[in-house]
Amino acid sequence: MKQFGDNRTRFSDAWGSEALCQWDAGLHDVRISQHHRDGVVRLTVDVVIKCQSSTYPLSVDVVLTHPDGTMEALSQPVVEGTAQVVIEVTQPALWWPAGYGNQPLYQLETSVVRGRERLERRNFTIGLRTIEIRRTTEEFGEAIACVVNGIDLFLKGATYYPERTPDGRINSARMRHLLQACVEANFNMIRVASGGEFPEDEFYDCCDKLGLIIWQTFTAPKQAAVWGDDAKNRWVTTVQNEFLRIFHHPSFGIWSLDRARVTSDNPMKLRPSSGDCVWKRLGLDSTRPKLVRSNRRIGLEGGFRFAKDLAARMYLVELQRAKAIRSEVEAARRQRIGSIGILDWPLNQRWPSITWSSLDGSGQWQALHYFAQRFYAPVLVSACSNDTRVTLHVTNDRVTPVEGLLDWQLLSHVGEVILSGRVPVCVAGLSTWQLPELDFSEELISASSRRTLSFAYQFECNGALLSADTVQFCPVNRYNWVDPALRLQVRDVGDAFEIVVSAKHLAKYVELRLAGGYRFSDNLFDVVPGQPKTVYVRKSWLFEPLSALQFVVQLHVMSFYDSYAGA
């Protein structure tokens, strides 16, 4: 608190407001709503004033600062404790989720003024955008979509648990690192599992800048069913205050209440910000993004052979989870119409352990995050195999069409190509395309052939590889794997190390590791003979500086073949 010479004390509250205590007047509530029409955004600022004395007239000043620095200022008198200021933005810079455009932000300053004295002010960071849940009736039933600025999005993300230090403080650097990792893995949404506690303002500010739509959950305590009226009212007031603190953020998209069934009178009587937020309840499973988990079976029952040691078991634990999540995500993205999106669980781990999270306790990428970088990619090619038949699907989440060449091969476990093909592909924006079914019944006539043949595909657009993978016609634990004879070539290219991975025979789930902290541009990928894989490690991603020689010494590689006994 700061003391001034005229016996007035200036203070700042949790809203970032500044007020002078001499006057019994200030900002009680500020609501910001947007109306988009014909390329013009009408901003309406509704202000409620707290005032115990009406001796002097009050007014509300609003200053809007555009992303380019230009400013607009309007003022309205306070009438019966309220005021409304309307600003029209004729050339709005729209805020877009990650992967669809930029995230321009406007600064809105609201002040209550008496004469020439500014009594209190609040600053808001806003983005101009529309967001809604659109329901339509299709042949298969009701279809639900998340529409942002008129674009039908497929929500892709994970569940985030707020990070705190042992003494209860927010670890800001770690939080920013986790959110940046989400954007780099092609997320456009993040679900906050607050457990009754909301993150700090810095979290929402960071999501605003990165373009991550927030699904904010709030958990009702288990004992709420037996609460008295006073306890319920206090709890509802707390939730309302938290909502008022964060509702103006453009990243704030979905609000939901866990354990809503514990109260019969529905105490969540909060009003949305003029349609800016999508209000949802967890009881309506059909309207929310699908939350995906996986089972815990490792070994023969989980589709893998038994691990030969602890390191191999940790490798398989991460791999089995990533595979399970990938199958769910690819199936959902193939059936894009009717699904609002999909989220994996969880994103982060609060303490060091053998974890199933996407990022481990130190923030390093786990197998699931590398898989997510591929199955959340804007352009995805996924294979659906049924016995001896394979169908390829190309999903395009971009707004613009995608054209390229889709190459496929039927090859043996030692790299011999049996059949191959090339198909030109053109997929419209925000749609999926299905390749005619490929039937290999003649080549897979025997059980032994199914254990030695694989299907490989890759999709290139303008010389860039967008998607690639291999498919086996039997469980991977029954496939006749041979030593892939992996070879690494490392080169220092200035700000990064370039690694070229090649294999003599088919290699499944190739993992690169370093002794210290690290991150690779890609990992846990398949390598087809004759098709080397190039991976980069930026020097800024390393926890400590390494020379080229130190990097080569600490670099290790393994594949699925190296994980089980007898390899």
From TrEMBL:
Q: Which InterPro entries match?
A: Beta-gal/glucu_dom_sf (IPR036156), Beta-mannosidase_GH2 (IPR050887), Beta-mannosidase_Ig (IPR041625), GH (IPR017853), Ig-like_fold (IPR013783), Ig-like_GH2 (IPR006102), Mannosidase_ig (IPR041447)
Cited Gene3D superfamilies: Glycosidases, Immunoglobulins
* A GO molecular-function annotation: beta-mannosidase activity
Compartments, as annotated in UniProt: Secreted
Q: What is the protein's major site of localization?
A: secreted
Q: How does it assemble?
A: Homodimer.
Q: Which family does it belong to?
A: Belongs to the glycosyl hydrolase 2 family. Beta-mannosidase B subfamily.
Instruction: Provide the protein name.
Output: Beta-mannosidase B
Q: Which organism is it from?
A: Alicyclobacillus acidoterrestris (strain ATCC 49025 / DSM 3922 / CIP 106132 / NCIMB 13137 / GD3B)
